[in-house]
Structures are given as C-alpha cells and as structure tokens.
Write a structure and sequence with these properties.
By secondary structure, the chain is of the alpha/beta class. Helices cover 39% and strands 18% of the residues. The longest helix has 28 residues.
C-alpha cells in the first residue's frame, strides 16, 4: 500500500468518517456484555459547539471508546436541553418581536424551529470531532415523550409531598421577569456607594437625636420593617426595643438585637428591608416581621414607595439620595466594591420578592449522604456540592414565568380554588389548552383554570440519568433503578445539574443517579483568562480542525491538563500535537516499507517468531507491555493527560529514537544475523505498531484507523475498524514482561544513545565509525549486534574490569562504563 509522504488529516479524517459504520458504537440491549451507561450532558442548543463543550465531549469519547474495547456494552447517548430563556430572547431578536405580541403557541413554535436548526449545527461539529455517540439513543427535552417523563416526575413528587406551592421570598430577575433558583444567581464585584443615613429616635432620646445607618440600597427605605444591632455592641444597647423613624417615609420601626449583625460594618446598625438580600429574609422570618414590597416584578417601584412609584430601581436610588441630601438626612457617602447577585443569563441585578411559586423540598441530609456514596473525580469537588447544599436558605423554586419550557401540569378549580395535578394517563399536557379528565375531588367542579407558569429547565435535565437507564417512573414493571456508571460534567454546574440530579434521583428512586461523577474544568484563552468575546481570546474547535484536523484537537484535549483542572488553550500546544501526528506518520511509513509482506510467507508462524526473538526485540515488547499497563491504569482513573503523554513519549523516544535506530540495519537485511534477525525485528515492529494503533484509538480515532488498516493489511487480515479491536489483556501483558531482556535491552539502547550524543557533541557524523567501544558490565553475554549497527563501531564486552586503566573517552551510561577507543 502506497503512503503519501505527508500526513493529510483532511483526506484521512473524511475517509474514516464515511467508512466506519456508526452501528459499531450502538448499545445492544440484548448483549451479555457488562453495561456501561454514560449520563451524557445535554448541551443547550445555541448552535455554537464551543471549545469548552468540545473538551468535555472529548473526555466522554475517550472513556466510551476505551470501555468498548475493554469489552463493555457502552451506551453513549446524546440529549439536548432545549428549553429556556436564551432561546426566547434569540427568537425575539431574530423576528423583532416580543413574546407578548403573538400567541403562546406561535412563540413556542418559533423557539422550536430555532432549536432544531441549532441542534443540527452542533451535531455536525460533534461528528466532525469523531464522537462515537449512539445516535439511536438521542433525546430532545422539548419532544413529547421527554415532556411526558418530566411531567410524570412532577406528579409523582407532588403526590409524595416533595413538591408544594407557597407564597415565599424568591430570587427574581426583573429583566427576565421570572423567578430564578439560587443556582441561577451569580455574583459580580461592582462599584457601589455606602450611604450613611439618619434615622430619628422616637423615644428615649433628645429632640432631633438620630441614629446613623449605612446602606448601599437607599431605594429600599420604603420596605424597611425593622432595624437591628448586635446585642454586645455597647454603643446601641439603649436603643434596643425602642423605635426609630424611617426618613422620607415617616413611619416607625422597632430596633432588635441580633447576633447576625456585623458591628464592624458601616456604623454597626442595619435596616431590615423586605427584601434587600438573603439575610433580610432570615431576619424577617426570625422576628416575624411584616412584609412591605416596594419593587415589582419589572424592577419598578410600587405604590408602597409613594412618590417614587413607577421609577426604576436606579432612578429611585438617585432621586432618594437627592431628597435625603436636601433634607439633611444624608451624612456622607463612601465608595466601595460590592458583591452583587445577578441573573446568570442577562447579568441584571436580582431582587428578592415574595411571590406564590412552586417549590421542591430540599432534603439536605439525604442529598449530602447520597453525594458521599458517589465516586468523585477529583474528590474535592464533592465538598463544593456539600457546601452549596448547606448554604441554601430555602427550597428549590421550580416555577418560571416564561413560555418555552415544560408546562406545570396543574389546574385550579374555578369553583373552590383547589389544585388539581395531572393524572399519569393524561401526560403530556398543556393545562392552558386542555382540561383534566376528572372533576375536582374537593367540590366536584368541572371548570378549571390552567397553570400559566412553566417548569425550571433543570426539572428536565435533572432526569437524564433515569432517562438513559430507561427507568419507568410508573414503576409498572417493578424493576428497581440501577444507577448508571458515569456522569461527566463541568465544575461550573455542580450546584445545578449535579445537585438537582442527585435530588431528583433520591426523590424518585431512592438511589444515587450514578456511581461515578467526572468533573472537567474550563478552557482558558491564551491570556490565561476565561474565554470571552469581550477579551478577544476565544477559539472555536472549527478553527483548529480547519488548520490541523480533529485528531490534533482531540490530542490537545487529552494532554492539556488533569481532569478537573482548568485547561489553557495555546496554539503552541496545537502545533506540538500536529508535529507528533507527523512523527507517527513517518514511523508508520518506515514500518510499512518493511512490513508490506510481513506474515504472508508460508513458513511464518507467531510461535516460531517468538522463539527466535533477539534481546532488543524482547526489550521492545516488554516496554510495550509496560506501556499497556500504564495507559490502562491511567484510563481507569480518567488520567487522560498521563495516558497520552505516556504514548507520546513511548512512540517518539522509545520506538522512533531508540528501537528503530537499533534495528534499522536488521530490517534492511544488512546485519550479521541475516534473515533470522530481520524476521525478529519485523515481528516486534509489527506487534508494537498494531498495539500502538489500539492504544491511540480512544484519543485520535481517525489516525488510529488509518494506522491500523495499513498494519493489519500487511498480514492479509480482514479489514475492520480499530475500534472493533479488543484492548490488550492485562494478565497476558503482565506475564510477557521479560525483566532480564528489559535490563539488557535498556543498556543496549542507553549505550547507543550515549554514543550518538558523543558524536553529535564533537561534530562526528552519526554513521562514521569510531575505533572501538569497550563496555564494562557483568552482562557477559550482552548482544552487541544492534549497538554496532546503530553506532557503526565494533563493540567489545570486557566484563567488570577496571575501565579507568584504558586510554579513551569514558562514557557513564547509567552506572555502566563504555570506553571509546579512538
């Protein structure tokens, strides 16, 4: 088979994309192989499969390909987490409309059309990157079957008392006009002012005496329901239990002693408003305070703020400062950096408002105990989850005031107001267009109003493990849930996808969702910062693929860093990966010169070849077997960087630089051992190259297939994909390690390398002979043929005599002395 001089990824990758039948990657339900089910992340279909996505999916594909070769029946499904605000915003932008201008049905259809288009774009990139996905297991959360599954889970948890409706403070985004969960709140440092405002003492103080209170949110004065100080703060003990008058709005509030107050912040006196932050909610509950809502769902001031009603929060803040200043009630202002909670989607500062919403009960102890049953890679990310669970102040708010999501399957009886949750045989359902099949169980009423709110999108995606496992939520078959093997995901969604998935699996099955969770980091730009368009440091996978091919990108993903750590993208690493591909190609081209007809001779048998192996060939196979053991161990522990580095070091340093240089003359038939030595080298080279193609297969699947097809054709084997091969048996590899040959072969390689370096340092041509090389070693039967071939110099083994008496240049080869006699 003729090979091109230069590796061409565009041609080779396209060839194998078309040639390999995807069915070899499909999960076989009837197989007797052990199952390995992956709970693949369902990405949000933006249409852009960015470099962070690509890194994560490379990790997943490394595992899937490896496990198949280890004999597992692997399920590598692919889902799409379709619903959510970003699609709604994009639809409004594309069509220059507002969601309020057309019907809910029409708006959802526009969202659906955009989502389908984006999914196809992202699938194309996944396939281009060589992902061995089982497309027969694809799922889309906006499809009717998955919607049914989501609504069934809601109904089941409601009937189990784990979902309820209540009026409660919630995080609210005024830009998106919807409630959001704790996990959807991000924190940003922003510039702010600490305003020192005077509250008048009502009793127990001199006429006109004031208490100074520092706040960053003067616009919440209309919502002030109390004031608090630390009980041990001697400055304010006299005002505890007394009243202060709220400036501008001229009403009185009580002063409480509370240990949560920080006496070192501001003046040590805080106003409690409904609601400025989560601490306000805690105080509001603890002291049973009244509720005064001065900011509405659109982020505008309500009638509670009287003369400020209708203003935006920022407008109100500016006017309030002006008015306080005019009345002499603003003592001073100090600039400061403040950590502000913002909506993760639109970066608008959130408000906390009281609203009637649907919630899932968060059973903290059960979730933490479940998390401890799961194997975490790396382990320290489990602590992040536990800390997150412990920090939650209230339950998971699952209702959203949006359109493109799964409808909450609930109706309200028009006669008595009772809640009616969908029956199992009614799902999927849109309560706005469909009525329930049975009357109200409270009053017998038959007229209902459908719930307008929709579910948080995490209610969809938190079910992916159960969906992949084929778990029946009705439990009609009585088959218990069996946790899937692996959840791969990013560390940025531990507090969302990981947390919600554990919560839901425990609630619905009583078991953990998966046995192992693998956490990947983020991809940073060349400048070391998170990739973002504003920093102009973004790189798309397609840029790399167009220049160097998918296998180069995959190799970069493998070697870029340890799993769990952030990975910095640098073009120099891509260039290095590309150089390695060319090196592999050159090794393959050289090998095929000598293996073109290997094994086709009538006299050839594997047993015969193994009996007649030279020491260096035994050494090579032992090094290969150690590589297999090392790579296997790394793969079992998801250390892809270590596995790929081991393979690169072996291929470049051991195989190319050492072994091939040692056996080159034997392969050409120009060595004293003649045909026997030639066949020995060919056997070792064939076994090494064939095995190397298998070890490379999880990482660079297209190149590995090309390499495997060349090597196996040399023996006339039936051509099949390398991905249908079995991973080397570890027990066999362990038994084939020849420590004696390894020790002797290592010395031979070291001496040849040392002599090459000796020549290079002195400007001597590598093929130029020296006078003689004397080797002082206790290996009296040391094979010298390959040293002589590699150095073009006669070698004499001198035992352990004192080499210092010899005249010549002494080389210290890892404790063994080699003397160059000129």
């Amino acid at each position: 088979m003729k090979m091109e001089k230069t590796y061409n990824p565009e041609i080779i990758e396209k060839k194998w994309q078309e040639k390999v039948d995807d069915s070899i990657y499909y999960f076989e339900a009837s197989s007797d192989k052990p199952s390995y089910v992956i709970d693949t992340p369902p990405p949000y279909p933006t249409g852009d499969f960015h470099v962070g996505n690509a890194l994560n999916w490379c990790y997943i594909d490394f595992i899937a390909r490896y496990k198949r070769m280890r004999g597992y029946n692997v399920m590598f499904p692919q889902g799409w987490d379709c619903h959510g605000l970003p699609t709604e915003v994009k639809v409004e932008e594309i069509h220059s409309i507002s969601r309020h201008q057309i019907s809910t049905h029409e708006f959802r259809e526009l969202c659906r059309q955009l989502t389908v288009k984006n999914i196809e774009q992202m699938k194309g990139m996944m396939k281009r990157l060589g992902m061995s996905i089982d497309w027969s297991k694809e799922f889309v959360t906006m499809d009717e079957q998955y919607k049914r599954y989501t609504q069934l889970s809601f109904a089941k948890m409601y009937r189990d008392g784990l979902i309820y409706q209540a009026e409660h403070p919630v995080n609210w985004c005024p830009r998106c006009e919807t409630a959001i969960s704790f996990a959807e709140v991000e924190y940003e440092d922003r510039n702010a002012y600490l305003n020192y405002i005077l509250f008048q003492k009502v009793d127990g103080g001199k006429d006109g005496e004031h208490v100074e209170i520092a706040t960053t949110r003067p616009e919440l004065l209309a919502s002030c329901v109390a004031v608090a100080v630390h009980p041990d703060d001697d400055r304010y003990k006299t005002i505890v239990g007394k009243e202060l008058r709220v400036p501008i709005f001229d009403y009185c509030v009580n002063v409480y002693a509370d240990e949560s107050v920080d006496p070192t912040f501001g003046t040590g006196v805080v106003m409690i408003c409904t609601f400025g932050d989560r601490q306000d909610v805690r105080w509001w509950k603890l002291h049973n305070l009244p509720l005064k809502t001065s900011i509405d769902e659109r982020g505008r001031m309500t009638d509670v703020a009287s003369g400020y009603a209708g203003l935006t929060v920022e407008e109100c803040k500016r006017k309030m400062i002006d008015d306080l200043n005019a009345k002499g009630l603003l003592k001073r202002r100090e600039s400061l950096k403040q950590s502000v909670g913002v909506c993760w989607r639109c970066k608008t500062p959130i408000e906390i408002i009281s609203a009637k919403q649907w919630f899932v009960r968060v059973q903290k102890e059960e979730i933490i105990n479940a998390a401890r049953e799961i194997n975490w890679y790396p382990e320290h990310f489990r602590i992040r989850l536990e800390n997150w669970v412990e920090s939650m102040d209230w339950d998971w708010c699952i209702s959203r005031q949006r359109i493109f999501s799964v409808p909450i399957p609930v109706w309200y009886c028009k006669k008595c107001g009772a809640v009616k949750v969908v029956a199992e045989d009614e799902v999927p359902v849109d309560p706005l267009t469909t009525s329930p099949n049975s009357p109200c169980i409270n009053c017998g009423g038959t007229e209902f109003e459908g719930e307008k709110d929709v579910l948080d999108t995490w209610m969809d995606s938190s079910l992916t493990a159960l969906w992949a496992a084929g778990y029946d939520l009705n439990d009609s078959a009585g088959i218990p849930y069996e946790p899937v093997e692996l959840r791969p995901q990013g560390h940025d969604i531990i507090r969302t996808w990981a947390f919600y998935s554990i919560l839901r699996a425990i609630a619905l099955t009583g078991k953990i969702p998966w046995r192992t969770i693998l956490i990947n980091g983020m991809v940073l730009g060349e400048d070391g910062y998170k990739m973002s368009k504003s920093r102009s440091n973004t790189v798309s996978p397609n840029e790399v693929i167009e220049k160097h091919g998918a296998d180069v990108f995959r190799q970069w993903a493998a070697i870029g860093g340890a799993v769990g750590s952030d990975v910095q993208f640098q073009w120099k690493d891509i260039v290095a990966a590309n150089k390695f591909m060319q090196k592999l190609w050159n090794i393959l081209r050289f090998s095929m010169i000598h293996l073109a007809d290997y094994g086709l001779e009538e006299s050839f048998t594997k047993e015969k070849e193994e009996r007649n192996l030279r020491v260096v060939d035994k050494w090579m196979l032992t090094k290969l077997n150690r590589l297999i053991l090392s790579v296997t161990d790394s793969m079992e522990h998801f250390k892809f960087d270590e596995a790929m580095k081991s393979i690169r070091t072996f291929a470049w340093n051991v195989l190319a630089d050492d072994y091939i240089e040692l056996v080159k003359l034997r392969l050409y038939g120009r060595s004293p051992s003649g045909e026997e030595g030639k066949q020995s080298a060919k056997y070792a080279l064939y076994e090494t190259m064939r095995t190397l193609s298998i070890l490379l297969a999880p990482f660079i699947p297209f190149f590995a297939d090309e390499m495997h097809s060349y090597i196996t054709s040399a023996k006339g084997e039936n051509e099949k994909s390398v991905h249908e091969e079995k991973w080397p048996e570890l027990e066999v590899m362990q038994d084939m390690i020849n420590q004696e040959a390894e020790r002797e072969g290592e010395l031979i390689a070291d001496i040849a390398r040392a002599v090459r370096n000796y020549k290079s340092e002195r400007g001597i041509a590598l093929n130029a002979p020296l006078g003689k090389i004397e080797v002082y070693t206790d290996m009296e039967s040391l094979e010298t043929e390959d040293i002589e071939n590699a150095t073009a110099t006669k070698v004499e083994v001198c035992g352990s005599a004192d080499e210092s008496k010899r005249e010549g240049d002494i080389l210290d080869v890892n404790g063994t002395k080699a003397v160059i006699i000129k």
